[in-house]
Amino acid sequence: MGMKLPSFVYKILNLGLRVGGIGIRFLLTFFIGKYFSFDFLGEYSLVNTTVTLSLLFIGVDFYVYATRELLARKYENQFTIVVNQGLFILCSYLLLLPVLSLVFYFDVLPVHLIALFYGVVILEHLGMELYRFFINIEKSLFANLLLFIRSASWVVVLCLTWWLNNIKNPSIDIILVHWLVGALVSNIIGFGYLLYYYKGSYTNVIINFSWIKAGVLVSVKLLFATVAQKVIEFSDRYMIDHYLGKKELGVYSFYFQISNLINVVVYTLVIMMLYPKLYKAIFSEDANLIESIKRRMLRDALFICLIFTIIEVFSIGFLTNILGKPEVMEYKNILYLLLGTTFIFNTYLIYKSSLQAYKLDNVVLSSSILGAIFNFVFNFVYIGRLGLYAPAISTIISYLLMTVILITYERKQV
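User: That's the sequence. What structure does it adopt?
Assistant: Structure tokens below.
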């Protein structure tokens, strides 16, 4: 299908779209922090975190099950998987979207955002599933183009609108409106190409409720593992908001986004490119190829972490000086802890992907629950004493614990 790009060009374009997207998204954080307030940045971070956790809740991690099934089938049988996954998503929306109203009942978010919130959650979830689908069929460049439209294009329009109109008092509403439009455009393009890709497979579709039921049983287990991981990743935001305040939440979110750039680069250049190949090698039981792919993933991931850590350490002073906010400069050491986390987190992701391909979901679940319990207890006890250092320290230790468990099990059992 079309001209095949050289490998290095493909990687550069993928990296440009992915890093450009995350960089533009960071522009929103930077813009709010510099021209508005860290209190408003804290509000935006709370909305963003709530949307992220809502996506996890309504998706029930069914995509992991669907990914394994999709990659194990030939092209002509794949559209059945896609359609049955779509049927599951529809049922999930009918059952679980009403539960999200609790976010407004407990005043996590103001009630006037309810329509925009639901619109963003639905479109973001569909966009996320499209992104995963195109990654699975090894069309990562198109996947990253969709992600760029969905996550970054609207940020440029929004920031230009604020700047040209000299806005002094922004609202969360206008952010959600732009976000919703960006996600809608991305999804229209994505679904159009999906239907084109399977244009000869429409008559091969078989609705299989038994397959969906089996997937739900597997996905619930996977969901608990992912929820536990997200507790580590996001629960600290709510605790910071509760115990320290929105200004501190804004500061922590600022440094988290800077360090998270490394995770994005690793995912784009390493995990995204190689995990479909790892799955296929495991399904074909090619032991030499499996080890070769895993070694390459670990080597490349840790090298990227090292290079970008050095870059960020030397550039953070310049960035905070441009921002000109004393509260940000005060907590500069938070970044160093979060940078240390990137090495451990990406090692964890590689071993997690491997064990999930082997369908060893119980091991992933056990390690995630232990990590989440430690993380929650540590933050609960120490955020009041250590401030913003507590969530950074707890994240490092949690992922280290989880990674050691996965590595130990894989070396003994696989």
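Residues 246-283 form the longest helix (38 residues).
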